[in-house]
Amino acid sequence: MPLGCLIRGETPHFQVLADAVAAGLMTVSLESDVAIPFGVLTCGTLAQAKARAGGRAGNKGAEAMEAALSLVALRQRTAPSRRRSAARAATASSRVARAKRSSSPGAA
User: Fold this and answer.
1) Structure pTM?
2) Are 34 and 74 in contact (CB under 8 A)?
3) Contact 27, 63 (CB under 8 A)
4) Which of 11, 29, 97, 100 is spaced 20 to 30 Å from 44 by Cα?
5) From 13, 75, 84, 98, the catalytic residue
6) Coil, strand or helix: which one is 69?
7) Dihedral angle at the C-alpha atoms of 82, 84, 90, 95, nearest 10 degrees?
8) Nearest C-alpha neighbor of 7 from the set 37, 38, 51
9) What is the pLDDT of residue 91?
């Protein structure tokens, strides 16, 4: 999970990096089957960054990690049900195929 902090400086480089990081993470998330929580702070000052990384504003990195772990837990809870659904579909398909074979005119 990407965690980081960009602090605005005296040049427009901050905006270029912030846009590139956001676009890159969105692209990775859209092109993969894995959700990517956004854990990158974009702050105007070092004081703001400290406040958001465990100060008065809470710990945004910890919040992002909690979100990532919640997604992992959700995926683990739903993965077995997807396998069960696929297995049920395969069993049903086999039953239909057997029924068709046994009722076909050429069946012995």
Assistant:
1) 0.57
2) no
3) no
4) 29
5) 13
6) helix
7) -140
8) 51
9) 63
Neighbours of 42 (CB within 10 A): 20
Tens-digit pLDDT profile for residues 63-107: 888 888 888 888 888 877 655 555 555 665 665 555 555 555 555
pLDDT tens readout for residues 22-32: 999 889 888 88
Helix (H, G, I), strand (E, B) or coil at 7: strand
Can you give the pLDDT at residue 20? 94
The residue among 35, 37, 38, 42 whose CA lies nearest residue 16 is 42
Active-site residue flag, 32: no
Q: Which two tokens stand for residue 13?
A: 């480089």
